[in-house]
Amino acid sequence: MVAAGQIAVIGTVGVPARYGGFETLAEELVRAAAAAGKAHRLTIWCSRPQTSAPHPDSFLGARLRYLPLKANGPQSIPYDALSLMQAARSGHAAALVLGVSGASALPLIRATTRLRIVTHLDGIEWRRPKWGRLARGVLRGSEALAARWSHEVIADNPEIARHVRDRYGRETLAITYGHEAARSTPPADISDLGLPRGGYALSIARAEPENNLALILRTFAARPPRPPLVVMANWGATAHGRDLRQRYAGHPHLHLLEAEYDPGRLRAIRDGATLYVHGHSAGGTNPTLVEIMGFAIPVAAFDCPFNRATTDNAAAYFDSADSLDALVPVLTDPRLAHGMGAELAAIARRRYRWRDVTQAYFDLLGL
């Protein structure tokens, strides 16, 4: 058993963050709790296969627990469900559940325990093109269970909140992400990457179809070499990514980088960009988009309601190779670039602050 008032964080690969937005959120919660002397009240469930040895039992004072399953893909269903059951059985007071994969366990947990369940729905996962028919059905059912059986539901984007309200008649709590962590570490040396001098367009995404890397790469491969394009992705993790890497790796003004997690190197890579191209078409408020807004550079974002809501309609938007190609010379004009970048940075400072985000979670979870 654990001490009274212990909070479980479920649904991430683990901390420190080395995968995506949920991991960054979990790490920021731990850091804020540590600064307030409360990190000992947090327990983070982690994936042993996806985290680095020697698998420490704590991080900045927060307890870490490991399961021998992956936190994403098909294994995310038993991973999240088992994490929830362990949290309930060990006497945790509340669980912050990041994603809906383990929602099949919620009715039983609600019926047999006092665990308070707060679920962050993430995006509308079952609409992502990468899933087959069976997986989409499972995810759609999991979303419905999460909306029905969670004590509180969090939506990080107004479009997600609208979807939940229209589909399930459920009101959600609005909590977004912060942007400052991307610029909080001094830039590190990245001379080994051989990136272009004088600026480049940058895109950072997982190599999944809904992130439109194929469209972005095709557009820049057909353009004159200015600006060159730097794309950072986990190319080897998916067949889609491996195919894109094989097709475009030798192109003279395309630079395909492997996913990078060192904060200083990430900072330096972002510092060198003069344009950001955001291809995500699914999900809610995407952390990479929020973070780049703080760098005060123009953004070309895929035209979908999630991205328009995140950027408050202050970015430029594309929905095809032709529309992206038309935007690039406009967004590299220094006069427009400065104005758009400044407006996006102001939105980030106003709407996406980690101190507000972490405090909202602490208030909700009773931390």
From TrEMBL:
Sorted UniProt keywords: Transferase
Pfam families: DUF1972 (PF09314)
Sequence ranges assigned to domain DUF1972 in this UniProt record: 7-180
Cleavable signal peptide: none
MF (Gene Ontology): transferase activity
Name of the protein described by the UniProt record: Glycosyltransferase family 1 protein
